[in-house]
Amino acid sequence: MRAPNANEILLQVEGVALAFGGVKALRDVSFNVKKGEIRAIIGPNGAGKTSMLNVVNGFYHPNHGAITFKGSTRSKMQPFEAARGGIARTFQNVALFKGMSALDNIMAGRTLKVRRGLLWQLLRYGPALAEEIEHRRKVEEIIDFLEIETIRKVPVGRLPYGLQKRVELGRALAMEPDLLLLDEPMAGMNLEEKEDMSRFIIDVNNHYGTTIALIEHDMAVVMDLSDRVAVLDHGVKIADGTPDEVKRSQAVIDAYLGVAH
Amino acid sequence: MIALGQFLEVLIGGLMSGVLYSLVALGFVLIFKASGVFNYAQGAMVLLAGLALVRALDLLVANGLPLWVAVILAIGFAAVIMAATAWLIERFVIGPLVNQDGLTLFMSTIGVTFVIEGAAEMIFGSDVYPLRLFPTDAWFLFEGLFPGGILVNKLDVWGALIAGVLVAGLAVFFQRTKTGRALRAVADDHLAAHSIGIPISWIWFVVWLVAGLVALVAATVWGTKLGVQFSITFLALKALPVLIIGGLTSIPGAIVGGLIVGAGEKLAEVYLGPSIGGGIEYWFAYVLALAVLLLRPQGLFGERIIERV
């Protein structure tokens, strides 16, 4: 799965612009994500990375431009519709259900997959029970995969930050998404945690074949991980290509290191 | 033996009326748990549900329907009214205020209170309407053991039974169903809930609907006890100390808080009344709530409030 299928485009972002009052967060940004690849969007702080992710996921509606996902084009969409379409995401500052256990958090990720109605579930009988068991099996598989067996019953609010990030990844995986959006998955982590998270991201991509688009400002991590990298600066895309190409781009070096005026 | 008999009678009577406070407090807890909104309108919703029920029932009986058919139809009608109310509140009040401060939402529910009270009385009338869904006579228990026996009101027993069934049902709903899980998820984090595909507007409708149905249940019992009338809205005030004692986020807390308030105020009235003057019933719950606030601000069963700075 590591070799992306060169022809099939999963997500196409075309000329997206987004402004908050006078602040132009994104200006005419276009890029695509191919099926099966790990795609990174990097840039200095305030470059518009998270805004871009929020547009794809439906939290923000772009002022201009269109987004084509799995062949259907739209400019406005609610987040839960994006989720139904197969887009899952994590958040920069971890958005978990803090009062619920790790297991319940990941089970919550199965919400859209539950088919039986409320009454069946209240009775906990027959097909509904069988379905619940099936979901639980799937969730346990993810828990094993992310090596968080020992914390499954712990309310996530009590977990250390690195583990919370892992639970959040688990919840996104439980949705069995076509496209997984990761918002700074390594932010605030120490080196060891970063290495763990990188390994999980690559494993997810290999094992489940999930297409991943991630945002980072730590260049080193991204270069090892991704197939292709797009670079944003002040809401404008300044480079796009393989990690090596991007590394050599003068515009990227200027954006990260500053340029003499 | 007379002393013990009297004590038991007061205690049981107090516990049973405490259950009725719990029924009202439950509605508050449900909405607060699921949306972080303190719903001031819960008392008004009990009034609305009661009025819709009793007026429909009177009309149907007057048209010659057998009582049991009329009761079922009237309960159905009141449930539909509560569903419509839930939809309107979500659509026009809570929905547009999504992501606003808790205090803003609280203020909006005060507005909702006035609208519901006004609309309910305008549509269904503003008299005192007697409701006879449950027997209101009394049992005398253990007449051999205590002289005169222990008086237990049948209505209170019904109230306790209904509250028990309601709480068990709600517990299963919250813990075991996808919608229940979604409710808890929305309560914890709106954005995250959105991102895993939970449509918040639908969930909030469900929450207000459930709270509306709990209000309907409370209205059947309270309406039988007091008659359906405007003063039912003041029940909301009695539910406040119950919530503070039990904890705003806990369903068991609402029940236990109600029992403590109910038993406490009756016992205090009977045993402290002669020495410090009567009327203890009216302030006892609030003083108890103050004490709980000082010693355990999150309530007996509430989630411990931890603020990370």
UniProtKB/TrEMBL annotation, chain A:
One GO CC term on file: plasma membrane
CDD domains registered for this protein in UniProt: ABC_Mj1267_LivG_branched
SMART domains per the UniProt record, alphabetical: AAA (SM00382)
Domain ABC transporter intervals: 11-259
Entry keyword annotation includes Lyase: no
Pfam family name, one: BCA_ABC_TP_C
A molecular-function term among this protein's GO annotations: ATP binding
Keywords: ATP-binding, Nucleotide-binding, Transport
Highest rank taxon of the organism: Bacteria
Keyword Nucleotide-binding assigned: yes
Function of the molecule: Involved in beta-(1-->2)glucan export. Transmembrane domains (TMD) form a pore in the inner membrane and the ATP-binding domain (NBD) is responsible for energy generation.
PANTHER family in UniProt: ABC TRANSPORTER ATP-BINDING PROTEIN, CONSERVED COMPONENT OF ABC TRANSPORTER FOR NATURAL AMINO ACIDS-RELATED
Listed name of the protein: ATP-binding cassette domain-containing protein
Species per Swiss-Prot/TrEMBL record: Bradyrhizobium pachyrhizi
From TrEMBL, chain B:
Membrane topology of this protein: Multi-pass membrane protein
Protein name: Amino acid/amide ABC transporter membrane protein 1, HAAT family
Alphabetical list of Pfam families matching this protein: BPD_transp_2
Record-linked PANTHER family: AMINO ACID ABC TRANSPORTER PERMEASE PROTEIN (PTHR11795:SF445), BRANCHED-CHAIN AMINO ACID TRANSPORT SYSTEM PERMEASE PROTEIN LIVH (PTHR11795)
UniProt KW keywords: Amino-acid transport, Cell membrane, Membrane, Transmembrane, Transmembrane helix, Transport
Similarity-based family: Belongs to the binding-protein-dependent transport system permease family. LivHM subfamily.
InterPro entries named in the record: ABC_transp_permease, BCAA_transport_permease
GO biological process: one example: amino acid transport
CDD domains: TM_PBP1_LivH_like (cd06582)
Top-level taxon in the UniProt lineage: Bacteria
Cellular component GO terms held in the UniProt record: plasma membrane
Subcellular location: Cell membrane
Gene Ontology MF terms: transmembrane transporter activity
Chief location category: membrane
Keyword Cell membrane: yes
Transmembrane segments: 12-32, 44-62, 68-90, 102-124, 157-174, 202-222, 242-263, 270-295
